[in-house]
Each structure stands twice: as structure tokens, then as C-alpha cells.
Design goal:
Elements lengths: L2 E11 L7 E7 L8 H8 L4 E6 L4 E6 L2 E3 L3 H13 L6 E4 L2 E8 L2 E7 L7 E4 L3 H6 L10 E8 L4 E8 L4 E4 L3 H11 L3 E5 L3 E8 L3 E17 L1
Parallel strand pairs: 2-3, 9-10, 11-13
Antiparallel strand pairs: 1-2, 1-15, 3-4, 4-5, 6-7, 7-8, 8-15, 10-11, 11-12, 13-14, 14-15
Helix pairs in contact: 2-4
Length: 225
């Protein structure tokens, strides 16, 4: 048994540094590919990133259920973290394809094909209050995204994601889902998700979108594997 060091960041915080979806970041050399799903499940985050080649931007993403070809909050989070370590990659390389990275002020964004990511069941509700009142137990399987307009003219959405398919009753901030919603609505969005995380998107027709936000460090961890 060995001790594994895990960096942790919060991805898609609000402008005051609150909320955000925790992300585990692990040196890929420290965990064999066959063990990565088990370690991700042990950590308990919705996703964990393994950095296989920092300079080249090669990373792999795992949930408790298995490897993910692409996911939004891990790619935004690792782009920020690599930059914080002095490795300002312009492209991340994940199994789904190359992911261009951009930065504007304190916002880090990634650009992806809007068809990438898990397939969601979509439910538009009548109000933000209805979104907030939803019970995760009502969505016991699969991937479900519920949302309503908070301010349609300004492109502000209130949303929540329930993803028991990857072992998480509710995901705080889901980048791939909001890229898909951006494509469905064909417009730029600010999605306020979960407890209050902020995800910024841009629509890039015919089939791409960016998702970005603020990232802050959290307390690192050490676990026995």
C-alpha cells in the first residue's frame, strides 16, 4: 500500500469564490491505468483527472463508473491548475479529441464538440424555484439536467444535474451538459448550477461550444491506495 498525493481545485466558482465543483488531480505516473477507476471512486469526486504528460496536455478523466472521453469541469480545472504550475498549455488532449484552451481575465475556458459528453435527459421547468425544489431522489438513474430561465433576455439559466449513472446523486457543475444546452438553445449562456456555481458558455456554430469559469485551489489530500 502506498500514499497518493491528490491536488484538489474547485471549478466554476461564483465571482465571490464560493461554490464550485471539486476536482481531484493526480500524477498519472502514480496510478496504473487498471487502478484509476478504483482510485477515482475512493476519492469520491464526480471526476478525477490523471495527468499523463503535462507539457503536451495529455490527461485522462475517470469517474467512479469508468473513464470519460471528455468532461467539462475536469478540463477547465486542469487547464487552470497546469497554468498555476507554470505549464500554460494551449491544447488539452483527451480520448475524445483535442481541446483548445483560452483565458480571459480570471476565466479559463475549453472548446469542445457540443455532441461530446454523456447523453442527458432534459427537463425545462417553469421557474428557478421549481428547479431548486426538485428532489434528487426523483431521478434515480441515468443523467438528467433540469433547468429554467432565470433571465431569458440576458441568457441566464438556473440548472441542476442528477447523475447517479456515475455514482453521484447531484453534480454541482457539469460543463459538458451546459455545452449541450448551449447548442440546443443556439446562444451564449451563464448557467447558475447546483448550490450556485457559475458556468459561462459561448455558442460556436455549427457544432461547437466553449465552457469556462473561475477555478480556485482547495486543500490537497493524501490517501492510501
Amino acid at each position: 500500500m502506498t500514499q497518493l498525493h491528490v491536488e484538489v481545485v474547485r471549478v466554476f466558482t461564483d465571482p465571490d469564490g464560493r461554490f464550485g465543483n471539486p476536482l481531484g488531480i493526480v500524477d498519472g505516473a502514480a496510478v496504473q491505468p487498471a487502478d484509476r477507476q478504483r482510485v477515482a471512486a475512493q476519492l469520491g469526486y464526480s471526476e478525477t483527472v490523471y495527468v499523463d504528460d503535462a507539457a503536451a496536455g495529455v490527461v485522462r478523466i475517470f469517474s467512479a463508473a469508468g473513464e470519460m472521453p471528455f468532461a467539462g469541469h475536469p478540463t477547465v480545472g486542469i487547464a487552470w491548475w497546469l497554468h498555476s504550475q507554470g505549464v500554460a498549455v494551449e491544447t488539452l488532449r483527451v480520448p475524445a479529441g483535442d481541446i483548445p484552451v483560452s483565458r480571459e481575465g480570471d476565466l479559463f475556458s475549453v472548446r469542445a464538440d457540443a455532441s461530446w459528453g454523456s447523453a442527458f435527459d432534459w427537463h425545462q421547468l417553469e421557474s428557478p424555484d421549481a428547479v431548486l425544489a426538485a428532489d434528487p431522489a426523483s431521478y434515480p438513474a441515468g443523467h438528467t439536467f433540469i433547468w429554467s430561465w432565470q433571465d431569458e433576455s440576458a441568457g441566464i439559466v438556473r440548472g441542476r444535474a442528477f447523475v447517479p449513472a456515475i455514482g453521484v446523486a447531484e453534480d454541482e457543475a457539469t460543463g459538458s451538459a451546459v455545452t449541450q444546452l448551449t447548442a440546443q438553445l443556439s446562444r451564449d449562456l451563464l448557467v447558475v448550477q447546483g448550490a450556485g456555481s457559475h458556468l459561462h458558455t459561448t455558442w460556436q456554430p455549427p457544432g461547437h461550444a466553449t465552457v469556462g469559469g473561475r477555478v480556485l485551489p482547495a486543500e490537497s489530500r493524501s490517501i492510501t491506495i
